[in-house]
Predict the structure.
Amino acid sequence: MYEQHIQDDLIFVMFYAGVTVTAIIASCYLLLRRGNAFAPDITPPRTLRRWTAAFFAVLAVGHIWYIPVIFLDSYDEVKLNYLIGGLLDSMTIFPLAIVILLVMLQDRKRPLWPVAAITAPVVAAMAWSVFNRSEVLFPAIYAYLLFLGIGLIIYMVREVRRYSRWLRDNYADLEHKEVWQSFIVLAVILLTFHLYAYTTDEPAYKYIMQAISLVLIGYLLWRVETLSDLSIAQPQSLPAAETAAHDNIGLLLQQHCIDTQLFLQHDLTLQQLAKAIGTNRLYLSQYFSGQGLTYNTYINDLRINHFVKLYREAIAAHSPFTAQQLAHDSGYRSYSTFSLAFKQRMSQTVTAWMRGAGTI
């Protein structure tokens, strides 16, 4: 908990107020701004924006309901204020943080009622603590939160892996879609918060907590604005009567994807490709699975083959070129994405490959 005589620390009070105002501005931005100031070409998930805005709002309110501590002198009054704040935090900030993690995963709609169920014991214990003005249950609360955190990490690791497989089975371009990096960063931020909150009472503690809150606001704001909404622009599945073509999927892919160079289209999805070749998304997915491929691997192989073709044509014609331009012409918006896919396919970097081909 914060030092009781916080009113003597004007710098901290200003820092505390600054974080509060930042949280309010971030919440209003997500709720009221229609455009995307961070990445104008990306449409983020509306549901994620709203849940994150709610999280920022309760983070700001959470700062506000601790303000009375600044003006209290009695230890008992300060203790009660922190107990009430802890109860309100356990009812709002804690469950909303879990909800945000779940909503980031767009492969399916996950029920949110379990979040209320797993946080209910903490809320009940904090309510008892407020009623009795006692911290006797705090060791049990900390232990429960520790086991809950471990269980949540295990669950999220499994779900993120499943989500990554889903992305590779349905999307050619993974830019602005993957979230595993976000969970690592958020886990580090929350772990740091937990360690300082429950293991230290050093003077720098209160500043570190506010700095972590500021980093969390900035990172979540960036993450929400740079994550693509995967629920938009998805064509409907074809009627069952139109799925007979699945027996000739290999030929159809050659005619309607390879020969037409449809694979160069940015953000081409499995569903869009299925419609283009006149078959069903399920049959196409089964076809790739039977070939030991993911959809993402299939498209990347075609694009890298196209890159090699363009490269050889440029060399033969003695035409000036850059690897970045050839990668873009091969269907990649991001050179870093191309580089990773190229290395996975060719077992060497683009630079090493071109040096071996005699161009560097």
